Amino acid sequence: MRIILASQSPRRRELLERMGIRDFEVLPARGEELADPSLPPAELVEELSRRKCAEVAALRPGGLVIGADTVVSIDGQVLGKPRDRAEAERMLRALSGRQHTVYTGVTVLYNGTEETGSERTSVRFRPLTDGDITRYIATGEPMDKAGAYGIQGYGSVLVEGISGDYYNVMGLPVCRLGRMLLRFGVDPLALAAEKEQAK
């Protein structure tokens, strides 16, 4: 079965490989990530992940397509990727010393059969000084991350704790995705075992 990841995120590619899935094509969805902003965050990311899958499935009929979308939510406001440094600074100030929620929607689509779900993880930031924010933005890392931080990178020093799926904060809820893939006949653990035995 041909597997296609409808994302250009290197983190999602890395997580698929960590799950044991090595043989897959990366074909990012190109459509604009627009959806009804009044939707609750879980519904928003599910809808966006569906759209990504549908777009790529039309280009690769017969393939099993995986799509995902991640946002950060705090005080009822959804934070996507910052458009510029000023917006990244505003986002980090909003998260400083507080707890927020990361939502990732994931869709698997194969031969017209679709399964969609979402995961939520609570993340707590330590209080950030102006210098912390300035230096972190200077790394460049916040600019392509929902909520203006990457938990797996330099942003790890900002995080006091999490409750939920760590990988969800990276952009792909691997436990949920693994269960979804099983329903399509793809067993990540079996693939990982085959790879290890072939060494």
Report on this model:
With 199 residues, this protein is an alpha/beta fold. 36% of the residues lie in helices and 25% in strands. It is built from 7 helices and 7 strands, in the order βαβαββαββαβααα. The protein has helices spanning 10-18, 41-59, 85-95, 130-138, 166-170, 174-182, 188-197; strands at residues 3-5, 25-26, 64-74, 77-79, 99-110, 113-125, 159-163. Strands 1, 2, 3, 4, 5, 6 and 7 form a 7-stranded mixed β-sheet that branches. α1 links the parallel β1 (3-5) and β2 (25-26). The two termini are 22 Å apart. The relative contact order is 0.17. The mean pLDDT is 94.
Topology at a glance:
Blueprint: E1 3-5, H1 10-18, E2 25-26, H2 41-59, E3 64-74, E4 77-79, H3 85-95, E5 99-110, E6 113-125, H4 130-138, E7 159-163, H5 166-170, H6 174-182, H7 188-197
Parallel strand pairs: 1-2, 1-3
Antiparallel strand pairs: 3-4, 3-5, 5-6, 6-7
